[in-house]
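From the methods appendix. Each design record in this collection lists the tokenized structure first, followed by the designed amino acid sequence. Records were kept in a plain field format so they could be parsed without special tools. The example shown here is representative of the layout used throughout.

RECORD:
FOLD TOKENS (342 positions):
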């Protein structure tokens, strides 16, 4: 790990270096929102934004992803040719990713790559070839609650390097071997720079006033929470629209479909969501999550009870606040979890 100083007027060189052997993406103003896009010019990169409108999870888990293509040969003897889609051709860097979104990618690593049986090649290939350069949040928004979710506005978890905006310069903290080359030739951070970064971290953490308790959620039995009366109330206003799942950096439900035209076809993986009735309906017509209450409860139980139980205490939420901002009927995850905890 190294702490270096990157003057803002040297940013162009820094990004140019990154672009030499990678495709570089960053948050930019697109249609009035902070959104991820390929970075053409240094001036386009945003430095002051609360968070990107959508999370960067689709860099690793695209909304629609071709897994393989196939061709049915003319005769049964010739059989079928199946061809996996090629690996990611070029390495990439995501610059100015927020710490909560980087933490979310680490949570998803636990889901997509668990052991030899569950080792998702498509996810792992993109993760291995992508460098994550974070930007610490100096000014979290009112819906953020990352400090309650094993994360924080200056957290370095899941990042290769972290940038902290110190005004006319940036503190560059390298965190993995992949990022060491970024620091070459840069001056060491002075004690005063480190003290300024520590002050910004403290102030940012203290500005997050939303608190979400997890102690009783962790301590209680699954069935206590499952049968709690709160689900009747929470489900009432939910529209099952799925907005909360699509905007969430840790939601990862998907469906696999074969799209066939004549003798050729492709197998695609599409985002799906647990709020949809169709997601769990069986071929027989039976649906184990047939009611809205079943589906709403599943979303919260999965993130805050099942994932922590099965993945060593990690939580399936990083407190980014996107679902709080975007739910059309104002279902607030902070309130739901505090109710679960109570
Ligand atoms: S965004 Fe709100 S209304 Fe839509 S599914 Fe999620 S909780 Fe329900
Ligand atoms: S559940 Fe809501 S606050 Fe938590 S990570 Fe997902 S979108 Fe962000």
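DESIGN:
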């Amino acid at each position: 790990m190294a702490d270096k100083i990157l003057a803002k007027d040297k940013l162009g060189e820094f990004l140019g270096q990154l672009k030499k052997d990678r495709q570089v993406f960053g948050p930019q103003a697109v249609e009035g929102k902070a959104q991820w896009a390929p970075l053409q010019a240094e001036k386009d990169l945003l430095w002051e934004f609360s968070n990107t409108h959508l999370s960067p999870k689709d860099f690793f888990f695209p909304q629609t992803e071709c897994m393989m293509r196939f061709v049915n040969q003319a005769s049964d003897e010739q059989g079928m040719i199946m061809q996996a889609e090629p690996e990611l051709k070029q390495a990439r860097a995501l610059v100015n990713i927020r710490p909560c979104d980087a933490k979310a990618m680490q949570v998803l690593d636990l889901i997509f790559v668990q052991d030899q049986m569950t080792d998702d090649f498509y996810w792992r290939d993109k993760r291995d070839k992508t460098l994550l350069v974070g930007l610490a949040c100096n000014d979290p928004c009112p819906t953020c609650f990352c400090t309650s979710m094993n994360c924080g506005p200056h957290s370095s978890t899941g990042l290769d390097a972290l940038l902290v905006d110190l005004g006319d310069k940036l503190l560059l903290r390298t965190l993995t071997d992949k990022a060491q080359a970024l620091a070459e030739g840069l001056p060491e951070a002075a004690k005063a720079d480190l003290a300024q970064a520590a002050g910004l971290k403290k102030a940012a953490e203290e500005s997050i006033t939303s608190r979400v308790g997890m102690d009783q959620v962790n301590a209680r039995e699954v069935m206590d929470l499952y049968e709690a009366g709160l689900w009747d109330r929470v489900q009432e206003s939910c529209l099952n629209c799925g907005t909360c799942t699509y905007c969430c950096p840790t939601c990862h439900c998907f469906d696999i479909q074969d799209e066939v035209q004549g003798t050729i076809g492709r197998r695609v993986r599409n985002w799906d969501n647990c709020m949809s009735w169709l997601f769990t309906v069986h071929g027989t017509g039976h649906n184990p999550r047939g009611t809205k209450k079943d589906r709403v409860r599943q979303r919260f139980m999965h993130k805050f009870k099942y994932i922590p139980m099965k993945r060593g205490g990690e939580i399936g939420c990083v407190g980014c606040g996107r679902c709080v901002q975007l739910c059309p009927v104002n279902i607030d995850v902070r309130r739901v979890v505090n109710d679960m905890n109570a």
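APPENDIX NOTE: The CA atoms of residues 17 and 210 lie 39 Å apart.
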